[in-house]
Amino acid sequence: MGMLPERPVPGAGRRRGDQWILPCFCLGCSLFLFLETFVPPFTPRAAAGDQAIYLHNAARMFEGQMIYRDYDHFTPPGTDVLYFALFRLFGIRAWIPQALLVVVGVLIVYLSFKICRHLLSGPAAYLPGLLFLVLPFTGYLDATHHWYSTLAAMAALAVLMQERTPFRLAWAGALWGLGTCFAQSLVLGPVGLALFLVWERRRRKESGALLLRKEASVLVGYLGVIAGFNSYFVWKVGWHRFVYYTLIFVAKYYPADSSNTWRAYMAWRPSLHLWTDWPELPAWGLIHFIVPMVYLLFFVRYWRDSRRQVAVPWERLMLVNITGLSMFLMVASAAAYNRLYTVALPALILLVWFLDSPFKLERALLRCLWVLVALLAVVKPVVTQMRWKAVLDLPTGRTAFFSPVFYEKTKWLLQRTRPSDYFFGDQFVGFALKLRNPGRIAFVTSSDYTRPEEVSDLLQGLERHQVRFVSWYGDLDNVPTAPRGDHLGPLRRYLREHYRVAETFSNGDEIWERKPESSED
After folding, report:
1. Per residue in 69-97, pLDDT tens?
2. CA distance 435 to 178
3. N or C: more exposed end of the chain, with fewer CB within 10 A?
C-alpha cells in the first residue's frame, strides 16, 4: 500500500435526495437475512448450535428457575434474561432466535454505516457493513451472547465517533457495561477506551483534570449498568455462586475443553466436498487473514504518516483500531472461527479504509470486495433455500431442519415424548420439544469442563425423575488425554445398568431408553 494521499472530508457534499438510501439499504439487509434464517413464508431454521443452550436455559427461567441457583452456566445472565423476556411476551417459540438474528444483523450494519460515515465518503461507507453481513455474520448464524455483546460494543463505538465528551463517554461506558452483562470478556472494551483517552489527551494536549473527568465518566457508566443489572441475581444466589460461575469457573475449568483454548484457531474450516459450504470459504479465509493483522498494519501506517499535513481523521481511526484490537483480545485465548467472526467488524472497517485510495492496486482490491459482496448477496440465500431441508411441527412451532440427522433425531423424540417430560443430553431437543432437564447442566463433556458435582447432581435427577430418554454422543466415550479430567465414569455405569440403546443415528449419536424395572432387577 502506497503513501496515503489527501482524502475528501467524509460525508461532505451529501445530497438531500440521498436520505432514502439508508432505509432501503437496511430493508435490503433485512430481506437478505430473512432468506438466510427463515424458509418462506415464515418457517424458522432450527436453532442448532450454542444458541440452543441459552434458549434451553431461558425456558428453565420461564419455569421459575434461576441461573446459578437451579442451573449452571459460565456467562453473565444477559442472554438468558433477553430470551426469558421474549418468552414472556410471545411464549416459547422457535422463531424468536432467528428473528433476533435479523434484528441484530441489521442494527450492526446500521451502526457500521454510522461509524464509517465519519471515515469514508460515498458508497465506501456502506461496504464494511455489507462485508460483515455476507461474510462473518451469515457464516455464524448462532444467536448467542457473542452477537449481543458485539451489538453493544458497536453502539458504544458509534456514540464516540463524532466527539468524546464526558456525556458521550458515560453513554459509551454504559453500553460497554450492557455488553459485559452478556459476555464478561467485554471488560477489555472500556480498558481499551481508557487507553485511547490517554493517547488522545497527549495528542490534543488536554488538561489532566479533563482526562480524569472523561475516564470517570466511562467508569461510572460502565459500573452503573453492571451493578444495576446483576444486583438482582447476586441478591438471589449470593456473591459466592455468582463469582464462582462468572470468574472462577471460567479461569479454572473453561479451558479444559479444547475448543476453548488457542488450539481452536483454524481448527475448523469449510468443507470443499460440500457445495453448501462453498459460500463460507471467503469468510473463513478473509477473517483469519485480516484479524488481527489489519490492526498492526494500522499502527505502522499511523507511525509513518501521522505527521503529514493530510486530512485524515486519525483520532477516529485510532478509536476504531483500539476498539477492534480490544475485541480481538477478548477472544484471542480461544480464537475459534466463530469467535473471530463476531469481533471482525472493526477490522473490515479499517480494511476498506486502507483500500479506499486512488492507487490502482487498492482500487482494484476494493472493486473485488464489491464484486464479492454482490455475488454472495445472491448466492448465499439461493444456496440456503435450495439445500436439503425438512419441516416438523414442534411444540415450539413449525421448524425447518437443514441436517437429515438432526431432523431424524428430533422427529424420533417428538413421536415418543410430550411437553414437560424429563429428558437429558441435547439442549436443542429440550428447547424445541419443551422437555424438562433433570440436572443442573445442559450437556456433559469428557473433560474438566463438566465437574464431578454436576455429574452427581445429574445422576440424582435421572434417578429421582426416572428419566426415560438420554441422548449420548460417541465422543463422550473417548477418554481424554488427561484422564483426571474425565468425570463421566459414574454416569456411564449408570446408563449401562439402567438404560439400553433404543436408537443409533448415522452420525453415531445414540438415544438411550430406561429399561423396565423388572429388567433392571
Report:
1. 999 999 999 999 999 999 999 999 999 99
2. 31
3. C
Give kind and range of the element (H or E) at residue 105: helix 95-116
Q: Which of 352, 384, 416 is the C-terminal boundary of a domain?
A: 384
* Last-in-domain residue among 316, 350, 384: 384
C-alpha cell at 194: 481508557
pTM of the model: 0.94
Q: Pick out the chain residues at pLDDT < 70.
A: 1-18, 309-310, 478-484, 518-521
- CA 432/CA 416 separation, integer angstroms: 14
Cα 143 to the chain's mean position, in Å? 6
Query: Could you report the per-residue pLDDT of 177-227, keeping only the tens digit for each?
Result: 999 999 999 999 999 999 999 999 999 999 999 999 999 999 999 999 999
Q: Please give the residue range of the domain that contains residue 71.
A: 18-384
Place of cell 430470551: 83
Q: Residue 80 contacts by C-beta under 8 Å, 6 or more apart in sequence?
A: 54, 57, 58, 61, 67, 73
